[in-house]
Amino acid sequence: MCPVPLARLRQHLARGEYVQARREAERLIQTGDLAGADRVHAYRGAALAHYSLQGVFAAVKLGEVALGLAQKLSDGELSARLRVELAEFYLALGDTHMAREHLFRCEEEPATCGPQPALKARLKQDRGQMHRLRKEYDEAAASLLEAADLYGREGSHRQALEALRAVVASYLEGGRPGLAWPVLERVSACLQEHPDEELSALHVTDLAHYYRLVGDLRVSMNFCEEALIPGRPGVDDRVLATASAIAGANALDLGSRQEAQSFAELAMEYAIRSKLPHLMNQASALRARLQQDEGKG
């Protein structure tokens, strides 16, 4: 049973009510009545709420406070969990150095996460994402496949699918779509068995990316159009930004510059709304291609 002071915070987090969770966590922190592990969990809850609301800088700051408090309690298991979460926050900022520091500290003390398969899986997933950001794609895929298998054994199907999508991204970003295809098929099969509207919509953009890389731009465009259908379940700004950027690049390669320009504007609009740096970079890259193409004309 949850301790009474934290019950409401944990309920909001479990329900995905992140604005309410953030307010409740901040209220608990400001009262100053919490001590020990309860105080750690209040800061941790605030960090998770901010992160889920795209407030990554605030999440890092709050997460570091939580970690410092946990270390004072000599709670190795809680410290390990906080380090893994902090690594994820830093990766969202593209700071692989700080992510590496936290991940390696966890691995130096395997007893803190060894008995916890879910935590070990998340450690492998974050490590894979770190390698992916460093363009170390073979290492990324290996770690992410381990994470997917660990999640699968625990029955954490959504997390397993997210790890598999990251494997696909590693191969596609590394320019090896042939290796990505069997994993894409595995994701498709998993989604049939464990439907998830959000991940299904993201999977469509992965397929669009794959077909673009193998040179079948028409099929890629079809998947982009599928992702951009108004009212499609599971679609968010990430899906719209990604599909628009891929469609814009396809249109440019197919000789439709005006269409590419329209998609580029949409890609940037959705990327800004998503607040995700890698999507803004993707949209900026498409704009740069358009400018280069105009200069050649």
Proportion of residues in β-strands:
under 5%
What's the N-to-C terminus distance? Answer: 68 Å
Task: Give the helix/strand class.
Answer: mainly alpha
Question: How many strands appear in the DSSP assignment?
Answer: 0
| pLDDT < 50 runs, ≥5 residues | none
Average pLDDT reading: 92
Nearest-angstrom radius of gyration? 21 Å
Question: What global shape is seen?
Answer: globular
Estimate percent helicity. over 70%
Number of contiguous helices? 15
The largest sheet, given as strand count, sense and whether it forms a barrel, is: none
The H/E string reads HHHHHHHHHHHHHHH
What does the secondary structure layout of this molecule look like, with pairings?
Blueprint: H1 4-15, H2 18-31, H3 36-52, H4 56-72, H5 76-92, H6 96-108, H7 117-133, H8 137-153, H9 157-173, H10 177-193, H11 197-213, H12 217-227, H13 237-253, H14 257-274, H15 277-296
Helix pairs in contact: 1-2, 1-3, 2-3, 3-4, 4-5, 5-6, 5-7, 6-7, 7-8, 8-9, 9-10, 9-11, 10-11, 11-12, 11-13, 12-13, 13-14, 13-15, 14-15
Structural features, described:
With 297 residues, this protein is mainly α. Among the domains are: 1-74; 212-297, no CATH class. It contains 15 helices and no strands. It has helices at 4-15, 18-31, 36-52, 56-72, 76-92, 96-108, 117-133, 137-153, 157-173, 177-193, 197-213, 217-227, 237-253, 257-274, 277-296. α2 runs antiparallel to α3 (36-52), α7 (117-133) runs antiparallel to α8 and α13 runs antiparallel to α14 (257-274). The protein is globular. The N and C termini lie far apart (68 Å). The model has no long low-confidence stretch (mean pLDDT 92).
